[in-house]
Design goal:
This protein is α/β, with parallel strands linked by helices. It folds into two domains: 119 residues, Aspartate Aminotransferase, domain 1, CATH 3.90.1150; 214 residues, Aspartate Aminotransferase, domain 2, CATH 3.40.640.10. 32% of the residues lie in helices and 17% in strands. Strand 4, helix 4 and strand 5 form a beta-alpha-beta unit.
Length: 358
């Protein structure tokens, strides 16, 4: 069984909390393995422009330099870029601007904000649930042919699965908007971003959602962008508040599109790959722990019997991990664990093993 499509008539009491996010798991002195934001000092080429931008906050933000820089990075025209206050704003703009759609489909498990935004705007959402037994792989033939909006993550949060670009491209067709959430694209693959559609200008209705908050630790600054057809992005821009992206965030966007940033991303991705392989190997060595699919991003999804209880015991020992039951298609036996340095991983897994053996 490759996957299944769930009905939208699931009783409200059984519905996962789509508004729950990893930052809610972290409190006090807990070691944070729940949030997928990299924590490291900002490099000078990024910190410098952000700091310098503070000197001109009396002026309204000018998005043009950042927009041009992002366009150049992805080999696109500036009008094919829409800068947003984080990737999450992009999902709200989509939900508000595309009120003419009637058959939206969200592929789960994935980041819950796209579906939450659609529901808040009054859309009725159909879900396609990918199968854990199949490694949460995407099968294009499982997407309803009549869907006029399809949203899928790549690599997908929380599964960490990287779908082939060809499978995603197969979902594009006239009359359909295809949204690919690439918030973690720069964490997957060395070198560059294999399976990314960011530079594809030949696919009808494609919108790629990107975030700069994960790798560069800018969650508090709120900066992301959308890539897609100019006519489609103009519809989204029409419902965006004026000056939605701040001057410091625009400075960050411009800096993160530079050659220095791209080179740094490759170095970070290489180290992340080593740290992820270490985490996966150690997890797979623990009896009773099942690692989902083939992890390719900054986090790993695991299935452990009684994971909801284990998560609370971890909190008592000083560790925060992300619960899985708020993601459609998962349940209380799933946990998402962020990839950290190998010393942190080893310390965490020692605690996890002790809890599981008790």
């Amino acid at each position: 069984m490759h996957g299944q499509q769930s009905a939208t008539s699931t009783p409200a009491a059984a519905e996962p909390d789509l508004t729950h996010h990893g930052d809610a798991e972290v409190a006090g002195d807990l070691v944070d393995l729940a949030v997928n934001v990299r924590r490291a000092p900002l490099p000078p080429w990024l910190a410098g422009p952000i700091t310098a931008s503070m000197a001109d906050l009396a002026a309204y933000p000018d998005h043009r330099p950042a927009r041009a820089a992002v366009a150049t990075r992805h080999r696109r025209l500036p009008e094919e870029v829409l800068l947003t206050a984080g990737a999450a704003e992009g999902f709200v703009l989509l939900a508000q601007a595309l009120r003419g759609i009637h058959r939206p489909v969200v592929v789960h498990p994935q980041f819950t904000e796209p579906e939450a935004a659609l529901r808040a705007a009054g859309h009725t959402v159909r879900r396609v649930l990918l199968d854990a037994a199949d490694g949460f792989r995407l099968h294009p033939d499982r997407i309803p042919a009549d869907a006029d909006l399809v949203i899928v993550g790549n690599p997908t949060n929380p599964t960490s699965v990287l779908h082939p670009a060809a499978d995603l491209a197969a979902l594009a067709r006239p009359g359909r908007v295809l949204v690919v959430d690439e918030a973690f694209a720069d964490t997957a693959g060395i070198p560059g971003e294999p399976e990314s559609l960011a530079s594809r200008r030949d696919l009808p209705g494609l919108i790629v959602v990107r975030s700069l908050t994960k790798t560069w630790g800018l969650a508090g600054l709120r900066i992301g962008y959308l890539l897609g057809e100019a006519t489609l992005l103009r519809r989204l821009a029409a419902v965006q508040p004026l000056w939605a992206v701040s001057t410091p965030a625009l400075a960050a966007a411009e800096a993160c599109a530079s050659p220095a940033a791209i080179q740094a991303e490759h170095v970070i991705a290489a180290q992340l790959a080593a740290d992820r392989a270490h985490l996966v190997a150690r997890l797979e060595a623990l009896p009773g722990v099942c690692v989902a699919g083939r992890p390719a991003s900054a986090f790993v999804l695991v299935r452990i019997s009684g994971a909801d209880r284990i998560r609370e015991l971890l909190r008592a020992r000083g560790w925060a991990v992300r619960r899985g039951d708020t993601f459609p298609g998962l349940g209380p036996d799933w946990l998402r664990i962020a990839v950290r340095d190998q010393v942190t991983t080893d310390t965490f897994l020692k605690v996890l093993a002790e809890i599981m053996e008790a």
